[in-house]
Amino acid sequence: MDVSSTTALPSYSNTLASTKTDTSAGIAMLNEANKMQADAAEQMIQSVTEATPPAPVPPEGTGRYVNEMA
């Protein structure tokens, strides 16, 4: 009976648990980074819409006729 392979089981389970913890931490950091990026994008969009003045209304008759000279 070979028992050498059973002595490695505790270290394997510790490695597996450590990998799961590392993966969970990485996913949490990624989610937080995505949230921060979305907040920054929303602030940029709001700043552009607030800074852009409305287009001026042209005087009556503007843009209806084209003057041509040859």
In words, what does this structure look like?
This is Putative motility protein. Residues 1-21, 49-70 are annotated as: Disordered. Pfam families: YjfB_motility. This protein has 70 residues and is an all-alpha fold. The protein has a domain at 13-40. It is 61% helix and 0% strand. The longest helix is centred in the middle third of the chain and has 43 residues, at 9-51. The mean pLDDT is 78.
What would a concise description of this structure say?
With 70 residues, the chain is mostly helical.
Mean pLDDT: 78
Q: Helix amount, in percent?
A: 55-70%
Number of strands: 0
Main β-sheet description: none
Termini separation: 105 Å
Strand content: under 5%
Q: Please give the oligomerization state of what you see.
A: single chain
Structural class: mainly alpha
**Mass-distribution shape:** rod-shaped
Low-confidence region ranges: none
From N to C, what is the helix and strand string? H
Radius of gyration: 32 Å
Number of helices: 1
What does the secondary structure layout of this molecule look like, with pairings?
Layout: H1 9-51
Annotation keywords:
70 residues, 1 helix, 61% helix, YjfB_motility, Putative motility protein
